[in-house]
Specification:
Number of strands: 16
Protein name: Bacterial transcriptional activator domain-containing protein
Strand content: 5-15%
CATH class of the largest domain: Alpha Beta
Pfam families: AAA_16, BTAD
Radius of gyration: 36 Å
Strand order of the largest sheet: 9-10-11-8-12
CATH superfamily of the largest domain: P-loop containing nucleotide triphosphate hydrolases
Largest sheet: 5 strands, parallel
Distance between the termini: 41 Å
Number of domains: 8
Structural class: mainly alpha
InterPro entries: AAA_16, AfsR-DnrI-RedD_regulator, BTAD, P-loop_NTPase, TPR-like_helical_dom_sf, TPR_rpt, WH-like_DNA-bd_sf
Helix content: 55-70%
Keywords: TPR repeat
Amino acid sequence: MALYLSLLGPPQLWQEGKPVSSLPRKAVAMAAYLAVVGGVVERGRLADLLWEGEEEAVRRNLRQELFRLKNTAWERVFEQSPHHIGLGPVETDLEAFLAQMARGAWSEALALWRGGFLAGLDPKASEGYWDWLIPERERWERLYREAMLGLARSQEAAGQFAEALKVYQKLLAEDPLQETEQQAVMRLYLQLGDRSAALRQYEQYRILLRDQLGLEPSLQTQALGVQVREGQPLPVQQQGVAQLLSEPPLVGRSEDWAWLEAHWGRGLLLLLAESGVGKSRLALEYAKHQVGAGPSETLRIRQRESGQGIGFSGLLEALRQALEAHKLDNLEPTWRDELAQLLPELGLPPSNLHKARFFEALCRALQAIVRPGGVVLWDDLHWLDWASLEFLPYLVRRSSSLGFFLLGTARPEALQKNQPARQILQEIARENRLFQRLLKPMDPPALVQLLRRMSGQREGGERFAERLFQATEGNVFYVLEILRYLFDQGLLRAEAGAWHTPFDSFTSDYRELPLPPSVREALLERLQRLGEDALPILQAIALADFPLPPDLAAGLLRHLGTPIIELENLTQSGFLRLNPSGYTLRHELVRQTVLAEMSESRRRWLHACIADALREVAGPLPQLAAHLEAAGQRAEAYVAHLMAGRSLRRGPLARQALEHYRRAQVLCPSTEPDHERFRMLIEAAETRIRLGQSQIPERQEMARLADSLGDHERFRLFLLDADASLASGRVVEGIPVAREALRLAQTPWQRGHALFKLAWLEYRGGDPDVQLEPLLASIRAFHDIGDQAMETLALRNLSGYWFRLGDLLQHSQTYAQAFKLAAELRDDLLLRRLRADKVMVDWVKGDYADSLQVAELLYQEARERGDWWAVWDALQGLLLNAAVLGLKPELEATVQRAMVEAAEVGAWRDLALLRSDYGNALMVAGRLEEARGELEASLRDLREMGERARLGHALFNLGFTLLELGDLKHSQDTLAESVTLWRDRKEYRHTARSLAALALAHLRANNRKKAQQLSEEAYALRADWARGIYDLPLVLYIRARALGNQRGGELLRESQQLLRDLAHQLPPHLAQLLLNNRYVVWALSKTTEV
């Protein structure tokens, strides 16, 4: 039952949305203290705060107070241990207030304020509590004041002067001596046109200061008073023409703005328009409006045409810029490690790569940059690269949960040509997470408004606007270029607060103005006036099509033979923009214009200049390779493509690496030695397998080269085929291939890997018992060559082997070795997996206290790291124990949230496993129809994924649930399938459990003979060491039931004694939970008269 504690006013506890009538003052005081300090507090400390007196007396008071709370809603407000007390599963308005402030939601934060922290409460506590409470109340009052100021400032920035005035007046009513707020009120009165009120405010403040403090207002306030008294307008920062043309006001977008308001927060809002219409400007202004003056930010990701072949091209540029600005410093280590796959500056990436975890890391990085309430604006989605396209749906699904918003822009005609981008956007639209708006060019009234706002004129300009509209059809970029052109020509000038042309006094429609017929001609005429060096510079930057850092730009200009001062000239003229990431063209239309003016020979020369500049600064290999190839330098391009492929093949850009390998194969010189060509081909093939591709086009040529080169190359080819067999699921075919690789192995490294692959293949598809010999040999090989990571993996597999055989001593020793090595390696992921293995082992053995303790610890650590996948793994351990000790509401709520999260990020395997274990816990709780629904969904998904290792568990759980529901036919079919699966996998302990359950199904169908046969098979396969209630006790119990009467009496008593022993070894509270398990109750309630 959900609890909510409201403390920013008269205290109130809510349960399921209803107020709890009792408000024990000591409980309120204690809860408030715990809510503020966080974590747990020693009992003695709390007792000293809440009561005066000797230590024993105050501790007794605390115990009595907690006892009085029993069986009330207040009991769940606290979590207790023998020495500490903490806050239980209760939400507070303190957390909500701080969260709203952090995202700049001032109104939402203020709505939680009901009069102050613990308003009206006299806790009757010690002097120490009052020493804490008084400054704490003042602290929350200051936070409240900050929220009020944040609201007022955001309203003023949005032009909501009357609303902002009311907020400032409310603040001054509480403290009229605040000078900043007094200035704001005067300023707002002037904005509202009420000069007399502004003057009255100034005089009242001056008198108040003199009477109460004997002071005069500050010089700044006095200057403001003079402006008010003399009726002077508020100072407005003057803008030059160049700045006005670079940052024009946003006009004519009220309907589009309203559309954004109506759809905000519902997914990806995509603004569509042709180049120059103003989609990016509208998106930026709206994002700025949403972010306001709070701590959140807007991140703009610029996608570029040249980046379509480079994975995460625009995103990588934005992330690297954020990293240099230290905006990723507070990113959790878990996500920093994952992000290192894309940003090597962050350190070594994790050894086990997981696409969904990497995507989550990207989302968390964006969240760290923009912060909750921030906006990610992704420009030019029509040029999305393949990796960003794959990531985009994940980002859209996760953004709302992470508290930031998404805006995008695209050109319709370019989007129409990009079929993969259209398909991805359609996929997002089907989920109702994509909303598109087609922007129109400015209409004539909007153009008039734009000209007036830019020129400072209050009226006029209609005829001039009409002339511009005829030439530009309302394209904002073209309008601004025309204005720049007219200013450059001297045909437009700014004088006396207005714009003028030579024709103002006599023209009727400004047809006299010589406007260029197209934006292209306007741009080219302006470029010609800048000199002959301007065009080649812009053409080179257009060909590069990525931000040029100053050092790279300087090197490029040296190769072009032009002075560096030209960069400044082009920037001041509005052709270039200098961002923190480097020099870029100001607009796509500039790029299109200068590229159209380029011959093929000039293009190749410019590509060569860019490549030379990139080599000098050790620039990115993918870009270097592309420019070398475009320059016609085939040999150099071959080397660059090969180096690029090798640098990318093991990370999230492996698909991009394949394209570099493909280009390297095309450009490979005929003189390249065969062994180098073979290396290139097999690296490409290994990358394909890592990506899950089953077709290996390089296979035939590799085989030919391997036959001529020798055993080393033939070994690599067979090892590759073994990997392909594992990846494709054709494991039986892979076993002889791995054996051939082992035969060809010449070095300890080769032997170790061939043996490890062979052992894994034998376990997956051959004879699991045969894996022992190669597994042991691989461990020795890895140990001899010092490969601790592979040795640890092999030892973990070996510990699992011993566990399946029931050799617990060997399992324990091997597990300890693996754990020790993993700890030395500081491999957190492997350590977590080993600890999760222990959860399962202890659970099967019936050591529920240990199993539960480790599962809870894993869950807590995972939550602290924010690592969802680790959370889901830990929840599976908790659910296993819940199937024995009962499903608590808190755990169930957590699991349900986790399943939503897993579905949201597309973690279907994790979702299926959670559903299977959740369904099992529901079955034990007697909620059979709910269990059936979860288990059927899990089973369906596991079948689709081919996840046979966990399929048997889902079949067993569903079969038992159907048995409890009385659906005997379907129960028998399902359990029989689980028996077949476990037998095929030689998992005999699981086979015994499924056979026993199937025997019970036949017994309930009155087929005792079949039940006796099946239970006898189960009894023969039993694992005597597996003493958990769903293993040996279950097999013995069902065998006893099948035999009936006296024949089964001894087995029944043995089963019952096992259950009592399990309870006896548990702490009392856990023992009682086990004895309350409905299957345990059934078993213990039976007598020998079965």
